[in-house]
Amino acid sequence: MPRKRATKTRATIGLDLLNFFIAGEQTGFGPFVAVYLTARQWTQVEIGFALSLGTITAMVSQVPAGLLVDALRSKRVAVAAGILAVGISALLLAIWPALLPVLTSQVLHGFASCVLTPGIAAVSLELVGHATLGERIGRNARFAALGNGLSAGAMGLLGSYVSEQSVFLLTAALCVPALATLPFIDAKPPPPPRRAATRRARWSELVALLTDRRLLMFAACAALFQLADAAMLPIAAGELTKQKGTHAALVIAACILAPQAVVALLSPWVGRTAELRGRRPMMLLGWASLPLRGVLFALLPNPYLLVAVQSISGVGAAVFGVMLPVIADDVTRGARRFNLCIGIFSLAGTAGGALSTTLAGLLADLAGDRVAFLGLAAAGLAGTALVWLAMPETGSSEASE
Amino acid sequence: MTVSRVSLIVPLLLLTAAAPAAPPSATAPGLPPTVMLQTFSPRDAMSVLGHPVVDADGRTIARLIDVLVDPNGQPVAAVLDFGGFMGVGIRRIAVFWSTLRFESGAGTHRIILTLTQDQYQAAPEYRDPEKPAPVVVPVAPEPKPGQQ
Predict the structure, then answer these.
(1) Distance of CA A256 to the CA centre of its chain
(2) Within a domain: residue B112?
């Protein structure tokens, strides 16, 4: 018995560290890629093409990657492959920043990210089961936020004082400790779930899932969440640079790090509370933080208050990060479609996020940053209303059992 | 046949460029007689795309990402990326070409922006190459009376 407990503890800590290192691995990707390629004498047209290719790959592969993880027996293998692929794409960027390797890197990273998100959730589900998944996902989010915050700090320093290239070398190096955690997470795969025998029955099961009201509602809520959220920080940070010039870099760093601290503090509580009191109250909290933040951004002129306002995004991020896998589990319990469902939710979120920066950029050009913030707040309000009026409680039946 | 010719020329070009004692101009074998080869040291012709830009105190403040030229190909303005952390919060501003000073010494090349932060930071962002570009142009230090 104590031996079994020790194994369980080892697996728990292993999963904590896995989340920490994978989040660290992902930090260098994103807007920093453009900075790096600019420094490597890439033209803006080439950079735009490479980044769009990455975004499009991520969109296109969410659902197939979910299906792939569902089909794989060992979820740990999927996660290992994802970690390796992200490491390779970082290494390609660092040592061979020519057109073809960078495009390869973007495609590889886009697909690997789509495997990693459901992969980690699936490994977590194998480890703790349905009953305490919320708590476990909360813990995942805590360690991911810590990994993200710490590596953002370290990479910011590296990028400024060493070289842009060193950021991607660190990223590639992080793949080693991430892989090293996997052997410790030796969860027993659950007994094979009941599976519809015939092809037709399986098909109708899939159709039933895809037309499930809970799935459609949460996908819509996720899209509206990202539509409201994604563009807020870039616009606020641009405004900061306008007011404070190059001195704004430190404040922007604080705007990136502070929300991660909030996520690290809040996520486990979000997971536990969602298990005890249901998903809806937590969702309302997270989604309602978006219009609040948008309006505050639009009203507050002081750049230093921006850090406080941006910290509110930690509340939304904690709720979103925890609820996405938890609700996917609620919707697909018993069926072998957990990762497909996560892929669908992530696709909805990614699409909302992509639209967010485009629409908010247009609004900012036409009518200024304040109007853009109010527009984003309106999207957040619509999302909150959708949660309030149409999102069913997906965990209540479980809680009352 | 063409392929092998190209692969010959490239190393030759590299050799010529690398040789420090090479004469400024020479006829290179393989080149048609209508052109000749002239070598410019980085001191005389400097690569600027992606190059860091420093302020008067020597602190890196931006990166040069594009050059806007007039119909004669003469540079009019430089597009600079300012600020940001990990790529978040970068502002893209175009400044008049003459506000940049180019210093090239032995092995070190610097691009110095002679504008102060107050002079450029409130400028509107340069976004779309297809639209008229907002460029920060210094007003002449002693404008003629009646002309601001």
Answers:
(1) 15
(2) yes
Distance from CA of B144 to the nearest CA of A (A): 31
* CATH, residue B62: 2.30.30.240
Residue B135 — φ and ψ, nearest 5°? -120, 135
* Domain limits for position B91: 52-136
Tell me which residue in A155, A240, A245 faces B86 most closely, judged by beta carbons: A155
List the single residue in B with minimal CA-CA distance to A252. B85
Q: How far is CA A9 from the centre of its chain?
A: 26
Radius of gyration of the CA atoms of chain A, in A: 21
| Interface size between A and B, measured as CB pairs under 8 A | 91
Q: How many domains does chain B have?
A: 2
Contact at CB, A43 and B86, closer than 8 angstroms: no
For every residue of A98-109, DSSP letters joined together read SHHHHHHHHHHH
Q: Which one of A26, A33, A38, A306 would you mutate to disrupt binding with B, by most B Cβ within 10 Å of its Cβ?
A: A38
| Cross-strand bridge partners of residue B45 | none
Question: Which residues in chain B are closer than 8 Å to A256, comparing Cβ atoms?
Answer: 85-86, 88
- Domain match, B24 and B74 both: no
Average pLDDT for A235-260? 88
CB half-sphere exposure, B49, CA atoms < 13 A: 10
Residue B57 in domain: yes
- Mean residue pLDDT of chain A comes to 90
Domain shared by B11 and B68, yes or no = no
Q: What is the pLDDT of residues A375-388, one digit of tens each?
A: 999 999 999 999 99
- Residue B144 has a pLDDT of 55
Residue B113 belongs to some domain of the structure = yes
